[in-house]
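To assess whether ligand presence alters the predicted conformation, the chain was also submitted together with zinc ion. Input:
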Amino acid sequence: MRSGPGIYFHHPACLSHDPRAQMPGHPDTPERLMAIEDALTAREWLGWERLPAPAAQESQLELVHTRGHVLRVKEMSQAGGGAIDPDTFVGELSYLAALHAAGGACEMARALTAGEADVGFCGVRPSGHHAEVDRAMGFCLFNNVAVAAEFAIRELGTGRVFILDWDVHHGNGTAEAFRRRSDVLFASIHQGGIYPGTGSLADVGSGPGEGYTINLPVPAGSGEELWLSLLEHIVLPAARAFEPDLVLVSAGFDAHREDPLAGCRLETDSFAEMARHVRDAAATLGAPLGAVLEGGYAPAALAQSVQATLAALADEAPARSAAPEPILTSRAATHIGRYWPL
Ligand SMILES: [Zn+2]
């Protein structure tokens, strides 16, 4: 039973995580989500069906995370909150918010693999892609996308999952979770030289996972031509050859030119173009596509970019092709082309 253009998962608990209680001026605010929802409400949610993001079971979190990590976050939250590192905070309601963020991603994976929709989006926070197996970091408590991917493989019978991370920061937590795995292809385009400092082109995974990690760092100032070029000519040819059964996107919007935390120059419509490319690849493969919110710290730009992404995931406009960038695309091709037909 397919309902409308797509399914959107959210929960009011995700608004109750507010790191400003411990660090005034922290960029990860509930207002980020409120801006997204206000913009979508003004457009009648583009016809998307809104569904509640359920709380994850602890057993779902433990598909990726250690029991110790889950308990540390839970106990810190129950004790009233505290700092995990200079960027990452837990408040009294943060554990509940994080359960709904990860649970929404899992429920989206379930609904998509059950054929209830072709595309989905989780408008949840805290974000997840920096969270490692045994450590919260970079505003992230639990790795929502990694938990959803593992849940799909272990509980839903999904064979292979392709994860694209287009947040401007490297998805170190997701990369580490699947570094030695060949049933998850992880590809990240990110600004090099900024937080968290990982994600070099030469890091292609290890052991049985060698070749199944694609890291594409780009310089500060990079704009749509380079991002689209790497997506079209490096990432998606590899993803097509991988033949995933499920496509997940760690959808951060902090590569936007207005974002205060990084120095890339994507426009609002650049995210729509990336979404169209991924949408077309997923459709060709017959795989459903679900995106989970990561970063994006200029609330107005974030809201417009999410709206543009949702519209693009469900429209039929052709994706705009970008020429191979002469230096960076060919350098990436020499590394990634050893493993995939580009
Ligand atoms: Zn980010």
